[in-house]
User: What shape does this take?
Amino acid sequence: KVFDESVLTSNTKLFEFQKDTVHWLLKRNASLNSTDTGGGKTLETIAVLSHRFKEGSIDGIFVVTPSGTEYNWMRSFLNFSNVFVEEDFHIIDNNNKVKPFDKIQNKKIVLIASHLLKDVFLSYKKGYKMGSSAKLIRWRDGAFVDLKKEWNKKSIACVVDESHLCKKMSSIKTKALLANKVYFDYRYRDWETIRT
Assistant: This one.
């Protein structure tokens, strides 16, 4: 696929190595971007998502972030991409984490801190009481919500920023994310690499 640079704002330019990465990412449905710190992983990811959204191959974007960086991601989308406007975003927080998807069907991008994943997905589990321990939940039995149906989306891309924070397979946030991966048609993980 040829990257459509018109999805980027006029003051956003990709370096050649970033263009190479974007072209590489567009050829895949799942990837792990481990470009060095400061190499532009966020810009590359936003470029790919904007391209996919404009071409119609996705109609929803689910971004899992480290705590406190949801607004940074929203600002980056708005600074780098001309495909989205502020009204397209929904940030899930402690005040709106219970069964949020049917209430935000008009939103294109959902931003969620990784520590809230279990609460959001468990809020759809029949009989689960918020605040209860999630250690005994059988996540491998599958998702508790049909994410595409609830959010009214046909094709969803999932981005996990700082995915090394979700690498422990026994962690509840990792189990919650993996239980729902069937709903993510495109999966992008950004992994921070630090050279020593």
Observations:
- The chain has six helices and six strands.
- The helical segments are 16-26, 41-55, 70-80, 117-122, 147-151, 172-179.
